[in-house]
Write a structure and sequence with these properties.
This protein is of the alpha/beta class and 425 residues long. The chain has helices spanning 17-31, 66-73, 127-144, 154-168, 180-184, 190-202, 211-221, 266-279, 294-304, 319-326, 343-349, 377-389, 391-405, 410-424, and strands at residues 2-6, 35-40, 53-56, 149-153, 172-176, 205-208, 228-230, 252-257, 283-288, 310-314, 330-333, 354-357, 370-372.
Length: 425
């Protein structure tokens, strides 16, 4: 079985959990005997392909005939957006877009005469333009490649998946790692929502990363429940847990690791930290990540007078992430809306007890994690305090959590995805 897979990021060049999930999933599919050709807008070099075939859309010339390009011209329109759009768009983003509410999958090609496109492969002002050009190149790739099924990850690649399906008439699976409602609450970007809905409607199967996300897809996008299937994410066990790292200070460490955006609830973490520090000063809080709320969090920490106990570590990746976990006594994920959430699994893999919001998809699969409502900072503070002060409680969640997470492997998730492929062939 051969799969033509479209993604937007891949380790080590990632901005969030999407790339990490793509790596784990494709490795698992390879273990299941599935051949994967993974397409990215741009290869930066150093991607961990691990026996899969990696393709860069930037290196693919358009081989479509004049007739095919003319046909595409009635179906694809590149919409230029002067804004900072990215796959993790949220309520804090400021953007200026065309308010043309007729935008959908019926789009017109403006750059069809170009034989090769340059992609930044990043999330910036021209992102929507790149998304549309990526779809055009996908048509060319699908006309050249040999494959049985198409798999597209998140809204950035849905147009590419639809274009590949139109050219090849092969089944399309779209994978929903997050929705616009997760990123932006009720203040959705209509252009992104329309792309998401078009991708889901045009797909033969829709895979969601949690039952929570499945409900959103069905209720908010109007997708037929019969074609929406949940496959939970997992965690990579390529590296063995090597124990806690020594620290140059005596205090306990509580960590938040993720995008510093509305969706991830960093403000609730800060408020809970303040409450904990009122009861026990021998603890340090770390916020690792970047995002549009970072400056606001810095100002809030200063206003609360806890700056000497609060550290902003910036964006971490690769070995830095595991190093941060190994220095932590507690990991907190206070997300307002989290489709899944791989970071708690990574923390548990490193022997760190975790506190997660009940509003996360990973709460569906974890038994040995403390669960709180994201908005209940008193409950969150109490959970942090308990894990830091009661050794038996901390050991319980360390040991049982680490054992539990060993059952959540990508091979099992990949087997489920392979079974979904087989139902379409």
């Amino acid at each position: 079985m051969r799969v033509l897979m479209f993604g937007w990021e891949f380790p080590p060049h990632i901005a969030g959990g999407l790339g990490t999930a793509c790596l784990g999933m494709t490795r698992g599919l390879l273990h299941q005997g599935v051949e994967v050709s993974f397409v990215l807008p741009k290869l930066f070099g150093g991607e961990d392909g691990d026996r899969m075939r990696m393709l860069s859309a930037e290196d693919v010339g358009l081989t479509l005939s004049a007739e095919e390009i003319t046909h595409l011209a009635t179906h694809l329109r590149i919409v230029g957006v002067d804004s900072f759009l990215h796959p993790y768009l949220n309520i804090e983003d400021v953007y200026s877009t065309s308010r043309d509410q007729t935008f959908g999958i019926n789009l017109v090609v403006q750059h069809w005469s170009q034989q090769r496109f340059t992609f930044s492969g990043k999330y910036g002002a021209s992102l929507l333009d790149e998304v549309a050009r990526y779809a055009l190149v996908a048509s060319s790739i699908a006309s050249q490649e040999s494959f049985d099924i198409i798999h597209a990850h998140d809204w950035l690649t849905y147009l590419a998946g639809l274009a590949a399906k139109r050219v090849s008439n092969k089944p399309l699976v779209v994978h929903v790692h997050a929705t616009e409602f997760d990123r932006s609450g009720e203040n959705v970007n209509q252009l992104v929502y329309n792309i998401e809905r078009a991708g889901m409607e045009g797909a033969d199967r829709v895979i969601t990363v949690s039952h929570r996300t499945r409900d959103i897809v069905i209720e908010r996008y109007g997708i037929n429940p019969d074609k929406v299937v949940t496959v939970h994410n997992a965690v990579d066990f390529a590296d063995d847990y090597r124990g806690a790292l020594p620290r140059p200070f005596p205090e306990k460490v509580v960590t938040f690791l993720g995008r510093v955006t509305f969706q991830k609830g960093p403000d609730y973490f800060v408020e809970a930290a303040y409450k904990v520090l009122q009861k026990m000063p021998n603890v340090r809080f770390v916020m690792a990540g970047s995002g549009d709320m970072l400056n606001r969090m810095i100002r809030r920490v200063a206003a609360l007078g806890i700056a000497t106990k609060f550290h902003f570590a910036g964006f971490l990746q690769g070995a830095e992430v595991d190093r941060m976990y190994r220095m932590s006594d507690v990991y907190v994920m206070p997300s307002v809306s989290e489709p899944f959430g791989i970071t708690p699994l990574e923390a548990m893999r490193n022997g760190v007890p975790v506190i997660i919001s009940k509003q996360s998809g990973v709460a569906e699969v974890l038994k040995y994690a403390l669960k709180v409502d994201f908005w209940d900072v008193d409950d969150m503070a109490n959970a942090i305090y308990g894990l830091l002060n009661y050794n038996a409680l901390q050991r319980f969640f360390q040991e049982h959590g680490q054992h539990e997470v060993t059952t959540l492997k990508w091979d099992a998730s990949a087997l489920r995805i392979k079974e979904i492929y087989q139902t379409l062939l």
